[in-house]
């Protein structure tokens, strides 16, 4: 028996975000292409070398990307929409980045001045971007046409295999599989199903696989995470079509079919019937599938068991894993062990965290440490536990320390949670009664105007925060600065006639981090960056312990802001599901339990805001939709506790206090009943980009509460005209009662510039006035 350590993919941004620095410098025109390629090459070399040193036997290549691996796949098969081909550049990298982020020559972009572009002025939008399965990583949605032709258009996979070979590493190239690619692809032609393009795309894959084989690859990892989704028979059959074809046309090349993010479930039988040489399964998300996989796997199928969590940052219980793996290793001739999925979703190296509480740090493993864990497991399996006895003992000690630590267990939080009953989730009166009381107090005009919360986080705001962080600006100076910014924002809102004001959120670095930093049970890292999309990285907080709110978080800021104006000032909070969703969450209790703890903490904040005099409190649940499980059968359970948590948060106040919520980026059809059950008095949603189409779900459902469909797309610097927003309001008024409607932008304005925001909001107020007369 032999057990080998393999990896499905390593983070490519670099431990110090070197890739971010390099691509952004290139985009800004500060460095040239040669410098960028050079940085990329040395990052790849360092990544291979590091993994080899950590004891990795089977090393991926092709997992590097300048922006996104799905975009790489689009370019690989030649799914490059005409729009980008028409740019008239021979530089494939320029086309690639145009697909990733759009190309507007002669204007400013987020990284500084636009990259110079030979030829005529260009103005093309980026491809659509969306979340990769249920992760917080975003990919570029492949776009195909009904008569799409494919041809191998990039040799990236082959080049990187060869590059590794030259450095002495024999790698297993990684590519995105054809069926998942087409299932993720979209067409602008309504009703067209991209999967019908399968026969057209397969020859390109055969071509590429053959090239890899000619270059010396014996195994190729082919990712088909779509196998963990609900599939119909036709979709399932597409896998057989694809992999039968590969088996027929490619002799001698072995495919490791990689599935991850969940159980194969009802796709298991079909998957095991595919003529592939290897299968990777996720045993972290779906440990229960192991027996069925073992029972059904051909004897000569090489199994890759994903036993180390590629989605989270906790140390694995190695002894427990060995208990499970030892009998399997004995029974099978050869076995691979691996992270559950690509390590793209974890930070790179725990060693860079010098400020973490050493106790908490001892419970964590980032990408580097996860490969070390795998190497240790393999050694124990191949040579016996005695060979690594000392390391196993240390691991047991960490696991035990975490399990029994008072840091993870706050009896007061647990006792309180035990007293939560249905009454905690119910407002004092039904909506119809509440809204009557609220209207009597607030006395707002019909179609009241408001904004979602944040105002521009200007360079000055960020500079002041950085200076305060470094100690160059003292607390009093920083507070003074923030108060001035807040006052200016309030005066300006009054001046242009907004009805319900916000303070602008200048004091907040991020809508989750700001709250996490003031809650017990959260830890923050210095360098634990994870790629979110392109060059954008996030540092999710780590929820390691029971969550409590030692002191009020936002009340002082709210009270200051309200003291400046007679108009209602919204209290502004982030909801429990969103805080959970954008953090690394403890894995020693159900997520629902952690979420309930956060819900209680935020509920306390809501109650304190009310006591301080707030008449309107907004609880943002931007991420509620994205928390939906991949399988429909699990939706109801998730929505149940997610809605319950929101209701716990919102239900501590009197009927006359108006609770708002906000959601963005949502496909509302799937969750409209849950949104109804949240029973917020007012919800603001993103609708401008879809020209109110997203409102359809609310109309069909006959959503009874108040609603502010976004009339201004804040994702673009474009300034919408008053008439355009008025038209959207009229459209909304045809679907919903005018008396239900609020007028607001799509989302917060923090990423915009004041010079865009000011005219846009002036126009919005004008649109509301006109619509009041018209509706
Ligand atoms: N209140 C937040 C803001 O305006 C909401 C942001 C969001 O929904 N993503 O910034
Ligand atoms: Zn939003």
What's the main sheet like? Answer: 8 strands, parallel
Overall, the morphology is globular
Unreliable residue runs: 107-118
Our estimate of the beta-strand percent is 5-15%
In spatial order, strands of the major sheet run: 1-16-15-14-13-12-10-2
Instruction: Name the helicity range.
Output: 40-55%
Number of strands: 26
Question: What do the pLDDT scores average to?
Answer: 95
Structural class: alpha/beta
Bound molecules: glutamine, zinc ion
Number of helices: 28
Q: In words, what does this structure look like?
A:
This protein has 775 residues and is α/β, with parallel strands linked by helices. It is built from 28 helices and 26 strands. The strands form eight sheets. Strands 1-16-15-14-13-12-10-2 form an eight-stranded parallel beta sheet. The termini are far apart. Residues 107-118 have low confidence and may be disordered.
Provide a quick synopsis of the model.
The chain has 775 residues and is of the alpha/beta class. Helix content is 42%, strand content 13%. It is globular and about 75 Å long.
């Amino acid at each position: 028996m032999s057990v080998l350590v393999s990896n499905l993919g390593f983070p490519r941004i670099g431990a110090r975000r070197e890739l971010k620095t390099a691509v952004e410098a290139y985009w800004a025109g500060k460095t040239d292409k040669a410098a960028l390629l050079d940085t990329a090459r040395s990052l790849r070399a360092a990544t291979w070398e590091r993994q080899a040193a950590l004891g990795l036997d089977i090393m991926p290549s092709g997992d590097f990307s300048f922006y996104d691996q799905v975009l790489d796949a689009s370019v690989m098969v030649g799914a490059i929409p005409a729009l980008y081909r028409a740019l008239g550049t021979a530089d494939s990298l320029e086309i690639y980045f145009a697909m990733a982020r759009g190309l507007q020559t002669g204007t400013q972009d987020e990284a500084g001045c636009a990259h110079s572009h030979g030829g005529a002025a260009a103005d093309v939008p980026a491809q659509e971007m969306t979340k990769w399965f249920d992760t917080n990583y975003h990919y570029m949605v492949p776009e195909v046409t009904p008569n799409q032709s494919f041809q191998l258009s990039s040799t990236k996979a082959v080049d990187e295999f060869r590059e590794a070979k030259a450095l002495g590493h024999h790698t297993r190239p990684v590519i995105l599989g054809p069926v998942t690619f087409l299932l993720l692809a979209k067409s602008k032609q309504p009703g067209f199903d991209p999967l019908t393009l399968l026969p057209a795309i397969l020859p390109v894959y055969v071509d590429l696989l053959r090239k890899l084989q000619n270059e010396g690859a014996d195994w190729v990892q082919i990712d088909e995470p779509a196998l963990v989704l609900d599939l119909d028979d036709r979709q399932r059959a597409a896998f057989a079509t694809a992999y039968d074809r590969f088996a027929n046309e490619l002799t001698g090349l072995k495919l490791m079919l990689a599935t991850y993010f969940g159980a194969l479930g009802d796709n298991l039988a079909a998957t095991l019937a595919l003529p592939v040489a290897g299968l990777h399964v996720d045993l972290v998300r779906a440990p229960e599938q192991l027996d069925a996989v073992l029972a059904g796997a051909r004897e000569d199928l090489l199994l890759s068991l994903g036993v180390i969590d590629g989605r989270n940052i906790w140390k694995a219980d190695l002894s427990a894993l060995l208990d499970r793996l030892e009998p399997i290793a004995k029974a099978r001739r050869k076995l691979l062990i691996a992270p559950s999925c690509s390590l793209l979703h974890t930070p790179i190296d725990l060693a860079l965290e010098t400020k973490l509480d050493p106790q908490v740090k001892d419970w964590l493993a980032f990408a580097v440490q996860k490969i070390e864990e795998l190497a240790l497991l393999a050694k124990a399996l191949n040579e016996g536990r005695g060979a690594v006895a000392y390391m196993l003992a240390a691991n047991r000690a960490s696991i035990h320390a975490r399990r029994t630590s008072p840091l993870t267990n706050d009896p007061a939080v647990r006792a309180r949670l035990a007293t939560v009953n249905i009454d905690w989730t119910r407002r004092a009166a039904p909506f119809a009664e509440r809204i009557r009381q609220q209207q009597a107090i607030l006395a707002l005009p019909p179609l009241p105007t408001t904004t979602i919360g944040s105002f521009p986080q200007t360079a000055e705001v960020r500079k002041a925060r950085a200076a305060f962080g470094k100690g160059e600006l003292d607390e009093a100076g920083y507070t003074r600065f923030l108060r001035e910014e807040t006052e200016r924002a309030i005066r300006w809102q009054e001046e242009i006639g907004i009805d319900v004001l916000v303070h602008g959120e200048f004091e907040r670095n991020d809508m989750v981090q700001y709250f996490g930093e003031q809650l017990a049970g959260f830890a923050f890292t210095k360098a634990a960056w994870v790629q979110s999309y392109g060059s954008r990285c996030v540092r999710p907080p780590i929820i390691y312990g029971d969550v409590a709110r030692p002191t009020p978080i936002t009340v002082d800021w709210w009270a200051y802001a309200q003291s400046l104006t007679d108009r209602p000032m919204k209290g502004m909070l982030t909801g429990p599901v969103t805080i959970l969703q954008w953090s690394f969450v403890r894995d020693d209790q159900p997520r629902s339990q952690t979420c309930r703890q956060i819900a209680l903490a935020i509920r306390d904040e809501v109650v304190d805001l009310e006591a301080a005099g707030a008449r309107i409190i907004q609880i943002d649940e931007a991420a509620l939709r994205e928390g939906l499980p991949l399988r429909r059968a699990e939706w109801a359970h998730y929505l149940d506790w997610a809605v319950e948590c929101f209701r716990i948060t919102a239900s501590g106040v009197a009927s006359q206090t108006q609770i708002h919520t906000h959601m963005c980026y949502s496909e509302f059809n799937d969750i409209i009943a849950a949104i109804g059950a949240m029973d917020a008095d007012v919800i603001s949603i993103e609708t401008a980009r879809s020209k109110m189409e997203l409102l359809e779900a609310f109309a069909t459902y006959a959503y009874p509460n108040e609603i502010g469909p976004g009339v201004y797309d804040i994702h673009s610097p474009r300034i919408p005209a008053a008439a355009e927003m008025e038209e959207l309001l009229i459209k909304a008024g045809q679907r919903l009662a005018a008396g239900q409607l609020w007028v607001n932008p799509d989302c917060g304005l923090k990423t915009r510039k004041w010079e865009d925001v000011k005219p846009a909001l002036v126009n919005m107020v004008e649109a509301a006035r006109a619509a009041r007369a018209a509706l």
